[in-house]
Automatic annotation (TrEMBL):
Gene3D superfamilies: Protein of unknown function UPF0759 (3.20.20.410). It comes from the Bacteria. This is DUF72 domain-containing protein. InterPro entries: DUF72, UPF0759_sf. Pfam families: DUF72.
C-alpha cells in the first residue's frame, strides 16, 4: 500500500492526536454491557505479497490464512466485480467466526464517483451478501481528489445505503478533515446514518488520524513504514483502543498494511499479542511459534 508513503519515516511525528471530543460523546452513549468484538487482519492473503507467512506446500492460501486470522480486509473487490458464486466459495473455505470486510469496487467510488451507481451497488451487494454471517463492514474508499464539492454525492450515497449492512467511509481529500465546517458536516452525516468513519494511520497523511468515531465501530487501516517505529505506533494504538473500550466502544476492526506487505503478518501478530494482554481478548496469534522473538 503506497498511499501515504514517505522516504524518511524517521522524520515523521507519529504522536497521536487527542481523542475527538465528539468521539467521547458518541462512545459514552453506548451500552457498556455489550460484548467486545475484535477483528484483526491483513489486506491480502496471496502468497506473492505475504512471503514467508505460508508453510511450504500450502495449497490453498485462504484456507491457511483463515486458520491464523479471524478477518481480512478484502481489497481484491476494489479492482473488479466478483460474481455471487465467488463470495460463496470464499465463505465456504473459511471457519466459523471468520469475517470479510470487502472494499467497494472502483467503478463505484473512482470512475463513476458515486453518481448513477445504483445498478452497480445492487449487483455488488447481491454478491457480497452471499457471505451471510461472515460479511463484516463494507468499505467505501474515495479518490484523493474527491473533495467536499462532491458532498451531495456522498450524502445521497450514504443516505441511500441499506441500514442493515454496515458501511465505513474513507475520504482522502485533505479538506474533509482540515476545514472545520466541512469536517463537522461530514461527521454529522456519518453519525446520523450510523456509518463508520475510517481512520487511516499512515506516515504521509497524519490529517487522517482524525480520531473521530461516528458510531460503535473503530475501523482502522494501519500502514506500517517498514521502519522500527512501526511497533511503537502499534503500542500507541493498543493504549488508545483500551481508552475507547473503557468509554464504551465495542467493535474494533483493525487491518495491517505495509509498503512491503511481507511484514504485515509480523506486525499483526505483535499487535494481537498486545491486545490480548491489555483488553483480555483471546485472539489467535498468527504463526505464534514463529513470532516469539517479537514478544
Amino acid at each position: 500500500m503506497k498511499f501515504g508513503k514517505v522516504e524518511q519515516p524517521e522524520l515523521v511525528d507519529f504522536s497521536f492526536p487527542k481523542t475527538h471530543k465528539d468521539t467521547e460523546r458518541v462512545l459514552s452513549s453506548l451500552d457498556k454491557n455489550e460484548e467486545l468484538s475484535v477483528f484483526v487482519g491483513c489486506a491480502k492473503w496471496n502468497k506473492a505479497d505475504l512471503k514467508g507467512f505460508y508453510p511450504r506446500g500450502t495449497k490453498d492460501e485462504l484456507i491457511y490464512y483463515s486458520s491464523q486470522f479471524n478477518s481480512i480486509e478484502l481489497n481484491a473487490t476494489f479492482y473488479r466485480q466478483f460474481p455471487p458464486e465467488q463470495f460463496e466459495k470464499w465463505k465456504n473455505k473459511t471457519p466459523e467466526g471468520f469475517k470479510f470486510f470487502p472494499k467497494l469496487t472502483q467503478d463505484i467510488s473512482h470512475w463513476k464517483r458515486l453518481q448513477g451507481v445504483a445498478d452497480l451497488v445492487n449487483y455488488y451487494l447481491d454478491a457480497a451478501t452471499r457471505l451471510e454471517e461472515k460479511l463484516g463492514t463494507i468499505f467505501l474508499q474515495l479518490h484523493a481528489n474527491f473533495g467536499p464539492k462532491n458532498f451531495d454525492r456522498l450524502q445521497n450515497f450514504v443516505e441511500g445505503w441499506p441500514t442493515e449492512i454496515p458501511l465505513t467511509v474513507e475520504c482522502r481529500h485533505t479538506d474533509w478533515f482540515t476545514d472545520v465546517s466541512v469536517a463537522s458536516e461530514f461527521y454529522e452525516l456519518l453519525e446520523k446514518n450510523g456509518v463508520s468513519n475510517t481512520i487511516v494511520d499512515t506516515a504521509g497523511r497524519r490529517d487522517m488520524m482524525h480520531m473521530r468515531l461516528t458510531n460503535n465501530e473503530a475501523f482502522i487501516r494501519y500502514v506500517g513504514a517498514n521502519h522500527s517505529s512501526d511497533y511503537g505506533r502499534l503500542d500507541d494504538w493498543v493504549i488508545r483502543l483500551s481508552e475507547w473500550v473503557n468509554l464504551g466502544l465495542r467493535n474494533i476492526h483493525f487491518f495491517v498494511h505495509q509498503n512491503l506487505e511481507v511484514e504485515s503478518p509480523l506486525l499483526a501478530a505483535y499487535f494481537i499479542n498486545k491486545l490480548n494482554a491489555t483488553l483480555g481478548t483471546n485472539l489467535k496469534i498468527p504463526n505464534e511459534e514463529l513470532q516469539q522473538s517479537l514478544f
